[in-house]
Amino acid sequence: MSWRGKRKDEEVRASDDESETHAPAKKLAKPSESSDESDDIVVCNISKNRRVSVRNWNGKIWIDIREFYVKDGKTLPGKKGISLSVDQWNTLRNHAEGIDKALADLS
Fold this sequence. Notes:
4-stranded antiparallel sheet, DNA-binding
């Protein structure tokens, strides 16, 4: 038997011993939308399913550009999107003129 096979067996036995003494980790529930931790101010709707909002989440302010979807009559945020910190937003905003120029050059 190679040393890899033997070592693997030892690890399995060690993990079996640990499972008897430790309870599995409990999953935390996601906070509800009405939680005080998340305050959203919708700034504008870019399209039917995309919006820009400013939120205070865990004590930090974020500019959120995100797609939303409807499930069971509720509008929920999707995975597609970006959350920018205030510093990142300011950097992007300072480059708006350059972005407009690049758009004009490509049009």
